[in-house]
Amino acid sequence: MAGRRRRPGSDSVRRPRTIKVIKRIDLIVPAGLVAGLRIPSLSVTDGSSEPVWADVPVGWRRSVRLPLDDRSARSVRRYVGLRPWILLISLLAVPAWLILVYADLPRTARLIAHAVIFMVPVSQLCMHFLMRGLPPFPTQNGDLRIPRVPVEVAHAWIGSNPGVSATACPAPRARPRRFYVGWALTLVPVSIGLALWMANNGREDAILLWMLVPALFTVGIVMALRIPTPVSGRAVRTWPPGV
User: Fold this and answer.
1) How many CB atoms lie within 10 A of CB 223?
2) What is the distance between the alpha carbons of residues 65 and 55, in angstroms, rounded to a whole number?
3) Structure confidence by residue, pLDDT tens digits, 57-77
């Protein structure tokens, strides 16, 4: 159109985005070397040279200070801040369920009890996705395994810490993948079906059956979260790095 101004550089050809391929590998740190590790100042999540250091939980009582990218460090801080509340919700779920079954509560109180019970599996899912693929974990022989570290960062760790090794083999599980899949696909539908049946059978069922419903559902969710990812053998494609 006449009189329309063109932006500077509008005639230039846009460069296509490139996809950075980050090859990843797991680090194995022997138990005796964990306390004296010399950790390179490279992010174990995306390999950046300006990492954010964070205390990453290893179970409930231990933590290890690792260099992370900014997004992963924020996830770790959220995870650590939410853990006490998740424990509190889990402890409150049992009395909430008992009160819901036995007590004649007003509507508002029943909604609160339902919300507390519902928050147990929801909170477990949130915690799982906050730390998915990130936290190091102890192996069966007590070593520390740090998953999905960029290969260049793993080389720096091995060069600075003799005795540390790397492996591309998946972490061993106590059970095969079909074990977790089978139990998850069984327990979750059974718990839902049992709850629907007891709610519509027109009689007062035993409290043990009502307590069995959240127990089966929670165990089913835990089994689903523990399903190991199939090994593809390919590099992980990310853009931008660390996302």
Assistant:
1) 20
2) 4
3) 887 778 889 999 888 888 888
**Strands (DSSP E) along the chain, which ranges?**
20-22, 24-29, 52-58, 62-68, 137-138, 144-150, 165-167, 236-238
Rounded-to-integer distance, Cα 186 and Cα 176, Å: 16
Rounded average pLDDT over 202-221: 78
Range of the domain at 165: 22-171
Closest CA to 29 of 125, 138, 140: 138
Q: Is the pLDDT of residue 103 over 80?
A: no
Strand-pair category, 20-22 with 52-58: unpaired
CA distance 21 to 191: 42
Q: What pairing do the DSSP bridges indicate for beta strands 24-29 and 52-58?
A: unpaired
Gyration radius from the chain CA atoms: 24
What are 115-172's pLDDT values in tens digits? 887 787 777 777 777 776 667 877 777 788 888 899 999 999 999 999 998 888 776 6
Contact present, 88 and 65 (Cβ < 8 Å):
no
Give me the numbers of helices (H) and strands (E) for the chain, helices first please. Answer: 5, 8
Do the Cβ atoms of 45 and 72 come closer than 8 Å?
yes
Q: Are residues 77 and 195 in the same domain?
A: no
**47 with 139, same domain?**
yes
Structural domains counted in the chain: 2
Tally of residues, the chain? 243
In a shared domain, residues 111 and 207: no
Cα–Cα distance for residue pair 144/189, rounded to 1 Å: 36
